[in-house]
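User: My collaborator sent over this chain with a note saying "see what the structure looks like." That's all I know about it. Can you take a look?
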Amino acid sequence: MKYYIIAGEASGDLHASNLMKALIQEDEHAEFRFWGGDLMQAVGGTLVKHYRDLAFMGFVEVFMNLRVILKNIKFCKQDILNYQPDALILIDYPGFNMRIAEFAKQKNIATHYYISPQIWAWKENRIKKIKRDIDQMYVILPFEKDFYEKKHDYPVCFVGHPLLDAIADRKPVDIEKFRKENDLNDKPIIALLPGSRKQEIAKMLTVMLKMVDKFTDFQFVIAGAPSQNLEFYQQFFSDKCIAIVENKTYDLLSVSHAALVTSGTATLETALFKVPEVVCYKGSTISYQIGKRLIKNIKYISLVNLILDRESVTELIQDNFNEKQLEDELFKILDHKNREILFDDYYDLEQKLGGKGASEKTAKLIIKNS
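Assistant: Without extra context I'll predict from the sequence alone. Here is the result:
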């Protein structure tokens, strides 16, 4: 079969690449054409556009780049028509993918959505378009199944979370070798995960790096996103000796003592690596104010707290993400008693996410339903 896949972010690239591997196991004639990143490209097929050229964060940024976005949508529609896939697979990235789904449905192309848009948080009215345009929805968070089926009478498949597979299938990291290869010393590591987009990295690192001189018994290491180069990061700490680990976030988390993490999938990844964390977020003032008024149905922004339905990890949002509060919260997660409580919460989190095999389950369902 021919598969056309659209992933617009780093996390989508990871999950789509593992789904592609699973599809190959189930379909020896699988062919891929996709929007994604380096991980998908490593599996094979034709990369149409890299996600680094697609990621615009916040309402203001999207508005400023609207012409580029509309041009990409037009190009994508024609590219799908030219390719004539047996299945269109959409990975999260709803602002773009929902427009493509509507088009594909009109052209009688089978539409599969893997990793649901977070309509339970905001834009719940998207359920009408999902019911109309998506043939099959595969959800990865346990509460999403009830949301779709009980609240909106729309059947979905809960396949488990693909991060469980991505983490479990990794080879153990040799910490001494890792330190040597990345010029790290013997101090415990505090990982900094500032995100993957330029706008958010700039906002996050500006505050995160202020912790370096306050916690001198630790070394701070930045998880460099594959979409950014070293020079971009170095402008934020020209006067400090900070290490950057490029495109090895999982290796870094596996050897870290604590982490400061920008809200997003990385908060869940950090928890699954059993690393105590402080969740951080700061957007542009306009984008934040708009978002605050639109997002009314959820109590938390981190996936860890949302899944557990309680405040397990501290969330520092907007004005609360400042030097003083970040210092206080980092000090707390370095305390032994607080760490034990977090580890217990992380165990509960893993149980709620279900077992391994999300990619394999989804691949089989896509082939069956195409």
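A starting point for your reply to your collaborator: The chain has 18 helices and 13 strands.
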